[in-house]
């Protein structure tokens, strides 16, 4: 795989697949933090040590394959333009933190983009694996196998009492972050999310925006993940998160049903107004686009809008981000130019579907 192939497609191949409860749960992710035992963690490591780890990962794993994840591409972050870095963030292949680094950092990406392994981020390795829909247990089983494959050549920093040692104390123990990306428009419209978020936080979980820590929940998309990594097994952490996800799915379905029963005309009006904005606008900002895409997706999931694929909404949510717009245009764009191009691309894509 080449960098250009990752840049050309807005939607990763695995995202085209359907998963359980995929009308509400967009994706499930397991991320593991791992470090080399004999080297200082990135925050204190010398450039020489970081270069060694970078070179080791490239030599041992570039172009390699593991089970269904083939042809791992090694992408040095320093070789990327600011726009290319932003595109990889928008596709969730790297973190915003890794995009800002300029030392010996890199990312290893499988051909189907389901697996990405960040090198020299906050830890030597950040291993993340995605599945469509609500499939945390399946993702956990697979990431364990992937972790074992990597550990065959790497001596991890591990303590018998503390577990995996990490750059940030909050990750010590399992070193695992399990998360789901959920589309919760009805709970947002009815303002139930403002009451649910504090309750979720009390359970040792955290609610963030689409790009994780520090991001906002645009387009009614929320990321729910664990905060506790020490004192619980990986299976217990996933089960606790899965239990909350099941509750949120039930609450969202009930809220959608209530809206459809009590205010069907208002619901249809909102959905079709947003559909009209997407298909007719000549200029549209990213927040408005995200809000309209969320409305139309709900219309598709509710059967109000027919003959429009749910995948198109997934694609447009990425394609209309600033990095992708500039990658598409092959040049740096002003905010106004991005808003004009965003509207044009949405119109064209919606017309193709019709």
TrEMBL record:
GO molecular function: ATP binding; creatine kinase activity; protein arginine kinase activity
Coiled-coil portions: none
EC number from the UniProt entry: 2.7.14.1
Motif RDXXRA motif of the pArg binding pocket involved in allosteric regulation per record, residues: 338-343
InterPro entries with a match to the protein in the record: Arg_Kinase, ATP-guanido_PTrfase, ATP-guanido_PTrfase_AS, ATP-guanido_PTrfase_cat, Gln_synth/guanido_kin_cat_dom
Pfam families in the cross-refs: ATP-gua_Ptrans
Catalytic activity field: L-arginyl-[protein] + ATP = N(omega)-phospho-L-arginyl-[protein] + ADP + H(+)
Residues of the Phosphagen kinase C-terminal domain: 24-255
GO biological process: phosphocreatine biosynthetic process
Residues binding ATP: 27-31, 92, 126, 177-181, 208-213
A GO cellular component entry from the record: extracellular space
Notes on how activity is controlled: Appears to be allosterically activated by the binding of pArg-containing polypeptides to the pArg-binding pocket localized in the C-terminal domain of McsB.
Top class in the EC scheme: transferase
Family in the record: Belongs to the ATP:guanido phosphotransferase family.
PANTHER family reported for this sequence: ARGININE KINASE 1-RELATED (PTHR11547:SF38), ARGININE OR CREATINE KINASE (PTHR11547)
Record-given protein name: Protein-arginine kinase
Annotated source species: Lentibacillus kapialis
Taxonomic lineage from the root: Bacteria, Bacillati, Bacillota, Bacilli, Bacillales
Gene responsible for this protein: mcsB
């Amino acid at each position: 795989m080449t960098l250009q192939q990752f840049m050309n497609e807005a939607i990763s191949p695995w995202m085209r697949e359907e998963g359980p409860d995929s009308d509400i749960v967009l994706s499930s992710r397991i991320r593991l933090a791992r470090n080399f035992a004999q080297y200082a963690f990135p925050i204190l490591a010398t450039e020489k040590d970081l270069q060694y780890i970078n070179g080791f990962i490239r030599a041992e794993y570039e172009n390699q394959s593991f089970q269904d994840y083939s042809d791992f591409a090694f992408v040095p972050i320093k070789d990327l333009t600011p726009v290319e870095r932003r595109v990889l963030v928008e596709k969730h292949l790297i973190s915003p933190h890794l995009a800002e680094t300029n030392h010996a950092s890199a990312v290893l990406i499988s051909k189907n983009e389901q697996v990405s392994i960040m090198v020299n981020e906050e830890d030597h390795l950040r291993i993340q694996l995605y599945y469509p829909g609500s499939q945390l247990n399946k993702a956990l089983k697979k990431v364990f196998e992937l972790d074992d494959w990597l550990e065959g050549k790497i001596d991890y920093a591990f303590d018998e009492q503390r577990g995996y040692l990490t750059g940030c104390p909050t990750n010590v123990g399992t070193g695992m972050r399990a998360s789901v990306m959920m589309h919760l428009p009805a709970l947002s419209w009815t303002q139930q999310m403002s009451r649910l978020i504090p309750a979720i936080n009390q359970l040792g979980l955290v609610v963030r925006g689409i790009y994780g820590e520090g991001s906002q929940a645009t387009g009614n998309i929320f990321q729910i993940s664990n905060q506790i990594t020490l004192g619980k097994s990986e299976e217990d952490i996933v089960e606790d998160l899965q239990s909350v996800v099941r509750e949120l799915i039930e609450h969202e379905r009930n809220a959608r049903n209530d809206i459809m029963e009590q205010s069907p005309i208002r619901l249809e009006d909102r959905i079709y107004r947003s559909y009209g904005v997407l298909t007719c606008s000549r200029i549209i900002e990213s927040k408005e686009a995200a809000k309209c895409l969320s409305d139309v997706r709900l219309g598709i999931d509710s059967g109000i809008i027919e003959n429009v694929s749910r995948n198109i909404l997934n694609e447009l949510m990425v394609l209309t981000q600033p990095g992708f717009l500039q990658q598409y245009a092959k040049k740096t764009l002003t905010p106004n130019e991005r808003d004009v191009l965003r509207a044009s691309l949405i119109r064209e894509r919606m017309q193709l579907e019709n």
